[in-house]
Amino acid sequence: MYKAQRKSGWRFTLVELLVAMSVFSLLLVLMMQFFSGAQKIWVSTEEKNNLYADARVAMDLIATFLQGTYFSQGGSGGNSAATDTHKGVPFVIENGTSEKAEIYFPTQTQMDLIENAGEIVFVTFQRGETNSTTPANDRSNELRMAILSDSPDDNASVGDFSLLFPPYNSATTGVGFANRNAAETRIKELLQDKIKEKIDSSDPDKTEYHNQCIILLDNVTAFRIIPMKTEKFKSATSTDDKGEDDLSQIPFLVEIQLSLMDKKSYELWKELKDSNAERAKEFRLQHEHTFSRTVYLGDRWSQTF
Asked: Where are the transmembrane segments (predicted)?
């Protein structure tokens, strides 16, 4: 009798089994939440690291090209030799403090960017075209780089790459450009044509050899190039002194500012912009990452003259 009662005491009741299963289920749910949260943190950190790495590569590339900026003592013969517009190589910053800055400048590089090209090329960095009527064709989220060189393909459009550099003396010889402004206009036209080219989406590197246009980054919300000048480089009569937003000469310093989001945040922000502008502004402040770098160029412009 005693043994029978003792054996029956070892058995689990239905209530005990239900309680044990409830506790086990609760622990399982807590563990799943813990691992799910850890996975989200890991994914978020990985996305942020990738974002920082991409931005760092783009900033390094822009800074490297700027540090190699080419300048010439230039000048042309005849009566125009004393005027600023007949000297120096075009260096242009437009809309510098806006979110869609454009920069055009010559640079010396040892990179094999283009086949059969010399060491000096003209480069532009700017965002793609904005298309508000056809959102699918909007390329304003892309930071693009285009290159103009003395390769055979470019010379077919330019005529003679060397004519883009001083001396500008077409007034006396009948060839080339009348002044630096005319060369600057032609350089901008050629580089903008490259920037606006539609890049083949099937190309894994997002570049086409003949266009020489490269997408450096996606999901860009702002790109600024802010030139900084010192008083001794300013002229009371020169039209090149347009303030810090536009510039037609090599500045003392250049500050690069680049803002971007991860892909998911950018898509959500785009949707909010169309439906709730105020909410979109708050969302941007919370999810936008801004990177800044200052490049020292020194007194190259003063050395040109």
From this structure: 12-35
